[in-house]
Amino acid sequence: MTAVFDKIYELADQLDKGSPTELDDRARACRTTKEAVKDAKSLLESVRVELSEGWHGGAGERALASLEDFKKNRDEQAEDLEESARSFEVVRDALAHAQQEGRNKRAEAKALQTKLDGVWNDHGHGGGNIVLAWAEDKLVKAKALILLADLQRVVTTYDAVLLAEGLKLRTKTGSVWELAGSEKRNLAEIGAIILKEIPGLAALIAKHPELDWALLHGDWDKIMQNPEVAQKIYDYFGFKYVEDGGFYTTGEHSVQSYLGWHDLYDKLEPVIGAHLDHTSDGGDNMEFTDPKTGKQYRLELWKGSYGFGQAYGGEVGFYTSEAGDDSGYFSAAQGDDQIKVTQQIYDKTSGEVYFTNDGQGADGTDKKHFWNLAIRNDPSVDSGNLGQRATIEVRDVGMRDRMYDEMTRYAAAHPEENLSVTKVSDDPPVLSYDWRK
Q1: Whole-prediction pTM value?
Q2: How many CA atoms lie within 13 A of 350 on its CB side?
Q3: Tens digits of per-residue pLDDT, 224-253?
Q4: Are the CB atoms for 296 and 325 separated by under 8 Å?
Q5: φ, ψ for residue 100 (rounded to 5)?
Q6: Cα separation values, 292 from 149, 338, 370, 398, Å
Q7: Among candidate residues 75, 83, 66, the one with its CA nearest the CA of residue 41
Q8: DSSP letter string over 270-303?
């Protein structure tokens, strides 16, 4: 039994290694730097205005345009710093809560251990009844096991926050993991954490009798109406319900963001109960390369039925691979490579629009993501009659033009897809398409 108490103390000590104060300092540092960036932006703007009065001609106009770009970059940098500050604060609050829970559990464990020692000390000195002593022993040990399970839940919940917020920070200002007393997770560890949490998720649903029927009949709309359950599903699987639109989407740092894309995934559709149209045919995909960096990009579209015919919807995914990588694997687009998508699913015959996802699921306010997904539970909709239209905004005109050229090439090579593509604007760089396969 000593091992159970030792494990409780070990977990509590592990949590105490983190520093909420240091995380708070990092959040404040991000905001201080953000203000400095905004000051730099103001200075750039004043310089640009002064120079614009005297600079004319091609070279001067290009220089002024560069200054304008620098100013825009400062806006993006300030937004990144603010989002990073918020992530540090989320981790800070989660760590402070976990540490308090750990201290409480440690104190309860010490009290139980003292009580257990007292039971047998009394018996050893001739006091008490052996039967009662054994009964008390069993009761104390049972309480200790419950304490351990509760503390493990606390640690796992904290890990979930680290996984989500840590990935956001690694794409911006650095790594939060070491600051919080944890370590970066590899894919195997992420999978292990998720599998470990599934019984807890089932127990959470079981706590609410009104959800038993919903779980039995796969009524996820009902299940996701419970805030506690919905948050747990979002923490571990990235799915969340968009109340206004009546559909499910995914967070930017969901588990799927770790998995990237490979053609093999399309072959797994029957396993997950999906029957989808997708823009890949015999190995021909919508892919293009940045001529300056050699970096490869892939755009893929999906629409159809999900959940063994119980739901319908569509997806727009954007992925990248480094120059020279011929493995067939693409990573989820990150940073400036991400795109802003407004996806609409409609009935091709009647023209009725079922729903529109205007970037829900993306972090922050820029609505840029690697994946625009929208799924609605409704088995009565004919998924074979779905159309998908969307606008896609990218970082610059060059990328927009390369994407447009590749989409029009693909459309011409596969007329059965009924895919039409249009350039919308240069500022911002946007194209639109209508897919009526």
Answers
A1: 0.59
A2: 8
A3: 777 777 766 766 667 888 888 889 999 887
A4: yes
A5: -65, -40
A6: 54, 18, 22, 11
A7: 75
A8: GGGT-EEEESEETTEEEEEE-TTT--EEEEEEEE
- Both tokens of 373, joined, read 């997904």
Euclidean distance between CA atoms 226 and 229, whole angstroms:
5
Instruction: Give Rg (Cα) of the chain.
Output: 27
Question: Alpha helix (H) ranges present in 125-175?
Answer: 130-170
Q: Where are the alpha helices (DSSP H) in 310-353?
A: none
- Please compute, for residue 352, the number of CA atoms within 13 A of its CA located in the half-sphere on the CB side: 7
B/e letters for 291-318, b = 16+ CB within 10 Å, e = fewer, are eeeeebbbbbbbbbbbbeeebbbbbbbb
Is the distance from CB of 337 to CB of 329 less than 8 angstroms? no
**Neighbouring residues of 99: CB distance < 8 A, sequence distance ≥ 6:** 15, 16, 18, 20
Token pair of 188, please? 């195997």
CA 126 to chain centre: 61
Alpha helices in 207-356 (DSSP H): 212-216, 220-223, 227-237, 256-259, 263-266
Q: Using N-to-C axis directions, what is the helix angle for 57-124 and 130-170, rounded to 10°?
A: 170
Q: What is the pLDDT of residues 196-208, one digit of tens each?
A: 556 666 666 667 7
Residue identified by tokens 């290009």 is 62
